[in-house]
């Protein structure tokens, strides 16, 4: 079983302003906003949903390759992927574009000002699912709008079951688009906010939508997650995290757990718990690809967390 993970690759540049934005952005002056923040702390992380999910799946020893479009500045990320042993076979470099990148400035109140440049990601439709070989399971994570629509069609045409995971890409789609994705996909994955948006835009409840697919997975941060399948809701507890460093990318880590469970024919109770533990391990580390474990260590922690082995 091999997974194809369609989605974004991005550099995330995170800067910390050691003060409060509210001391510098004055409401009576926003019509002539011209501010500069001195940011002594800065880190640059490898990110993007497809990159993150592929990284997490690799940690678990799952099989799969990401598919995405990247820019001419991708070399450091490519080197990182090579060191992790993650396939770059389905990555396409777009001439004249930068890799997607987010510039995130946070202050001491945990406010964030973010600029996101999609760059090469907007060309994601140049990659085709039909150009791949041996794919038996798909995942469609946030990417260029056209690419997401076409990749869903291509998965459906090829008879490859896939998880629709719209994430931050959700606002690009109206109710009609979302219902089409739900018809094409076998599984839908959301966080609680996205699940709410899905229900609002489609006018259908999660329970009604769950009747149309094999399962809908809804994550709720530290509160755990739910899997709606076969007319019932399976509640998955969160695993205890030793520290809460950075919640970014917990959703991606969780999705790698879903792929791993599906690839290995596991039941939803265990698949959900593997996914849940992935999210808990991720939150203990800053950045989305800085956590690391062996499969034996993961299995031991799974047993500790849930009281049985897989
Ligand atoms: N504080 C926490 N403690 C333990 N597990 C957590 C915590 N936060 C998240 N997780 C795990 O990660 C999963 C996914 O997290 P969450 O629902 O926040 O995803 P998300 O909103 O899509 O995140 P993002 O898009 O930033 O990656 C949760 O269902 C849970 O299993
Ligand atoms: Mg998410």
Summarize the structure.
With about 300 residues, the chain is an alpha/beta fold. It has helices at about 50-60, 75-85, 145-160, 175-185, 190-200, 205-210, 250-265, 270-285, 295-305; strands at about 5, 10-15, 40-45, 65-70, 90-95, 100-105, 110-115, 135-140, 160-165, 185-190, 215-220, 225-230, 230-235. The protein is globular.
Tell me about this structure.
The protein is of the alpha/beta class and 310 residues long. The chain has one domain: 3-Layer(aba) Sandwich (UDP-N-acetylmuramoyl-L-alanine:D-glutamate ligase). The protein is 34% helix and 22% strand. The protein has nine helices and 13 strands. It has helices spanning 49-60, 75-84, 145-158, 175-184, 192-202, 206-210, 250-263, 268-283, 295-306, and strands at 3-6, 10-16, 41-47, 64-70, 90-93, 100-106, 112-117, 137-140, 162-164, 187-191, 215-219, 225-229, 232-236. The strands form two sheets. Strands 5-4-1-8-9-10-11-12-13 form a nine-stranded mixed β-sheet, with helices on both faces. A hairpin with a 5-residue loop joins β11 (215-219) and β12. α1 packs across α7, α4 (175-184) crosses α5 (192-202) and α7 runs antiparallel to α8. The longest helix is centred in the last third of the chain and has 16 residues, at 268-283. Residues 167, 191, 219-222, 224-225, 238-239, 241, 244, 247-252, 254, 276, 279-280, 283 line the site of adenosine-5'-triphosphate (ATP). Magnesium ion (MG) is lined by residues 167, 191, 251. Residues 35-290 form the Carbohydrate kinase PfkB domain. Keywords: Kinase, Transferase. InterPro entries: Carboh/pur_kinase_PfkB_CS, PfkB_dom, Ribokinase-like.
């Amino acid at each position: 079983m091999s997974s194809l993970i369609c989605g974004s690759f991005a550099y995330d540049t995170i800067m910390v302003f050691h003060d409060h934005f509210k001391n510098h952005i004055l409401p009576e002056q926003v019509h002539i906003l011209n501010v500069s923040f001195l940011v002594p702390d800065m880190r640059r992380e490898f990110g993007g949903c497809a990159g993150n999910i592929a990284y997490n799946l690799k940690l678990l020893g799952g099989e799969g390759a990401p598919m995405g479009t990247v820019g001419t500045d991708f070399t450091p990320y490519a080197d990182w992927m090579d060191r992790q042993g993650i396939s770059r076979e389905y990555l396409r470099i777009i001439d004249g574009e930068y890799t997607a990148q987010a510039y995130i400035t946070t202050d001491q109140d945990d406010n964030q000002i973010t600029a996101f440049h999609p760059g090469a990601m907007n060309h994601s439709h140049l990659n085709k699912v039909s150009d791949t070989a041996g794919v038996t399971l798909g995942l469609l994570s946030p990417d260029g709008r056209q690419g997401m629509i076409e990749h869903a069609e291509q998965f459906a045409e090829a008879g490859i079951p896939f998880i629709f995971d719209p994430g931050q890409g959700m606002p690009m789609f109206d109710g009609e688009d979302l219902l089409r994705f739900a018809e094409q996909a076998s599984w839908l994955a959301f966080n609680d906010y996205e699940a709410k948006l899905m229900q609002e835009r489609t006018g259908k409840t999660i329970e009604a939508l769950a009747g149309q697919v094999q399962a809908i997975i809804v994550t709720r941060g530290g509160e755990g997650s739910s899997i709606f399948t076969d007319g019932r809701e399976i509640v998955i507890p969160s695993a205890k995290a030793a520290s809460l460093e950075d919640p970014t990318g917990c959703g991606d880590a969780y999705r790698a757990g879903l792929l791993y469970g599906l690839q290995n024919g596991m039941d939803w109770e265990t698949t959900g718990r593997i996914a849940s533990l992935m999210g808990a391990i991720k939150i203990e580390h800053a950045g989305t690809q800085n956590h690391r474990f062996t499969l034996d260590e993961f299995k031991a922690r799974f047993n500790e967390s849930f009281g049985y082995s897989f």
